[in-house]
Amino acid sequence: MLFLSAYLYSKGITDIAGVVFLLIALMSSYGPVSALANLGTTLQSTIAASGRVLDIIEEPPETDEITGKQDVLFSGAECENVTFRYGGDTVLDDFSMKYPDNKIVGVIGRSGSGKSTLLKLLMRFWKASGVL
Fold it and tell me: What's the structural domain count of the chain?
């Protein structure tokens, strides 16, 4: 478009306003053209991510849903002698802890020490041996 506008101006077909208009059109079209060019890559990533989400949704739950019982109020939580393994690797071994009501409890430790696993067990994402 730059060369076209220079050619048209040199031949007297357009004036400087026409050249400026073509240059503005060229510069303002860069963003939409770039977004359109990246659409294929973005669309592939979106489709792959949605496939993974649907696979997770279709997985059968690890724990059974408890229904038909009286609602309970939270009054603290407790873990007693909890052991959990990923395959053959023991992540939590005979772990016990009390979580008091109306308190903020921080769970700290080095990477791989079982912090996230403990929280997932408390939320009943997995079954554990011991009392949870």
Answer: 2
